Amino acid sequence: MQAFTVHEGIAAPLDRANVDTDAIIPKQYLKSVKRTGFGPNAFDDWRYLDPGEPDADNSRRRKNPDFVLNQSPFDRATILLARKNFGCGSSREHAVWALDDFGFRAVIAPSFADIFFNNSFKNGLLPVVLKEEEVDELFRRVGQEPGLRIEVDLQAKEVRVPGGPVFHFDLDEYRRHRLLEGLDDIALTLQHAQEIRAYEARRREEAPWLMEGR
Amino acid sequence: MTGQTLYDKLWQAHAVREQDDGNALLYIDRHLVHEVTSPQAFEGLRLAGRKPWRADSVLAVPDHNVPTENRSAGIADPVSRVQVETLESNVASYGLRFFPMQDLRQGIVHVIGPEQGATLPGMTVVCGDSHTSTHGALGALAFGIGTSEVEHVLATQCLWQGKSRSMLVRVEGDLRPGVTAKDVVLAIIGRIGTAGGNGYAIEFGGSAIRSLSIEGRMTVCNMAIEAGARAGMVAVDEKTIEYVRGRPQSPSGEMFERAAAAWRDLVSDPDARFDRVVELDAAEIEPQVSWGTSPEMVVGITGQVPDPEKEADPVRADGMRSALKYMGLTAGMAIRDIRPDKVFIGSCTNSRIEDLRAAAAVVRGRRKAENIQLAMVVPGSGLVKQQAEAEGLDRVFLDAGFEWREPGCSMCLAMNADRLEPGERCASTSNRNFEGRQGQGGRTHLVSPALAAAAAVAGHFIDPAELEG
User: Fold this and answer.
1) Is the CB of B451 inside 8 Å of chain A's CB atoms?
2) Burial readout B235-261 (b: 16 or more C-beta within 10 A, e: otherwise)
3) For a disulfide at B442, which of A136, B418, B429, B438, Cβ 3.0-4.6 Å?
4) Residues A40-78 pLDDT 10s
5) Is B63 on the interface with A (CB under 8 A)?
6) In whole angstroms, how far apart are CA A110 and each of A7, A20, A130?
């Protein structure tokens, strides 16, 4: 997994609450058996005026000029500024893969849906929770100065705006450490293989109906 | 020491290792797998040269992409077909339990788990699918995971989890006639909002929840995720134990009695403390209809489409305006005056036998209204379909001009051929009314099976109770 330490980039303002994973990546693209290639279809229904299918040539589809990610400089954004409950709905990790493939490294919002939040860390996409008024302030700054480059620092747990405020964010140490190092979760867990086997042995005594492989 | 919640008990019983930072390595008893969220996990496993830790914990089934008619012809869409074939090849190479499309036991993963006794009280259950919360109705800790976590569970049988806060949603009193589990959970979501349960595990309790059947409780727990909570659950009672008894993968004989004794302890202690308690009066809940593009945008059948101009929160008002625009509705319009084009009865929320009975009871002896272009019933599994046919429910629907289909997720999310066309309006028993969910430009109104059936015969939304006599 790619590590995340500090990232500086253009922030795109996506000014709506409850953006769901169906909107981030519509269902027809979930038929892929790969992890890559979802970027051109991120926010597909909002981004294009023509309907999309998995094998369509996206470069030939008409783009919706009103959608923020179709507007310069936000088409080059690497930080997404969002509203509350971002990533709600389906558990599809394809939503994270699509944002990553588009080029996003971080999403800043007042709150995230739990499964999306988890999935992000598995792919090196950093979800940053700031206070509602801090997110408001970022929307305001980006509105005044499109193309403003924001710095997201996982080491210091800070979001910094040039010549402007520094916002602190909290994150549990376990997740932060893994993301800073880009560690493989499975390899780490397998270091506890003996404990897992010991648990299984105990459960075979306590609750054999769960362990007998029916 | 204060008592434990049901969630505390389930958590504690499955913690292989607890760390000082509050994270625990949780052991997973049952891993349900479907074709959409698993291919990349199996590929990851293979690339790393790993094998499933406990192959016998897995039950795999194709459900999202499968066609609901003319199954003998196979899957027409080549992309869908590859995904289902990929699952077939993965389960074959690792020797996993699998119900193929032609198997009578095939169906929606959250219908067949409980049906087979593959999900049991006291289990931890995961699936790469957010509606895994359904299985919490049996007194299990069940939650949806992403594909990386699917790979993690395959490889280690465990997941690292931070413990959620606990919420009790207590619904006390008697439900009015015609008010169902679906109406209860929609009313709960309307109350706490789609982010209300973020960071929480929800236990549903109170006399109205206890009075629900196990299938009704599944409908409620299914939509915990629409309230923002990854896990929803209901305490075990004698209904739970009788539901589980005799199922193909349930324990039997003496082992069942031993298990049942343990399951009876799967209730929150009387002195257990919850981080948040939400109370609803069952008698105040009407049949519900969603009007917008988020499940929290819901009102009673006697209500009106709300007015964004009266909403104080500007972000919320904007959300309402864009929802009304997308849905083609105007503020103040009576819910009863909304006329669907299509009706969908199915999904992991409402495709079990009791759901089909409830819909059939409304439809019996009536005809689909002229303005309804399509009314389709998609049973949750081959076994549900077989049971419904044994009861003659298929005839009731067919005689009324409905279509009777093969089991799968179908038009809940339109990954197969069943979908809405742009602008079409659907009365749907599914769980999400997001933009484009049932087909690009499609407009979804979430309702109970009885209300969907009533809309199909009346041609507009109506309280099923009004159709009586």
Assistant:
1) no
2) bbbebbbebbeebebbbeeeebeebbe
3) B438
4) 999 999 999 999 988 889 999 999 999 999 999 999 999
5) no
6) 19, 15, 5
B311 touches chain A (CB under 8 A): no
Interval A28-48 mean pLDDT: 96
What backbone torsions phi and psi does residue B376 show, to the nearest 5 degrees? -125, 140
Q: Which tokens is B27 given?
A: 């052991």
For the stretch B327-378, pLDDT in tens is: 999 999 999 999 999 999 999 999 999 999 999 999 999 999 999 999 999 9
Residue of B18, B40, B96, B97 for testing the chain A interface, max A β-carbons within 10 Å: B40
Q: What kind and span of H or E run contains A123?
A: none
What is the Cα Rg of chain A in Å?
20
- Give the helix ranges, DSSP H, for B15-168: 39-47, 78-94, 109-116, 147-156
User: Rounded to a whole number, what is the distance in Å from the CA of A55 to chain B's nearest CA?
Assistant: 9
The distance of Cα B439 from the centroid of its chain, to the nearest Å, equals 19
| H helix or E strand, kind and range, residue B274 | none
In this predicted structure, what is the pLDDT of residue A214?
57
Put simply, whether B333 touches A (Cβ < 8 Å) is no
In this predicted complex, what is the ipTM?
0.95
Q: CA–CA distance from A49 to each of A52, A65, A67, A187, B6 (Å)?
A: 9, 9, 10, 44, 49
In total, chain A counts a number of residues equal to 214
Nearest to B136 by CA among B151, B148, B150, B125: B125
| φ/ψ of residue A149, rounded to 5 | -95, 125
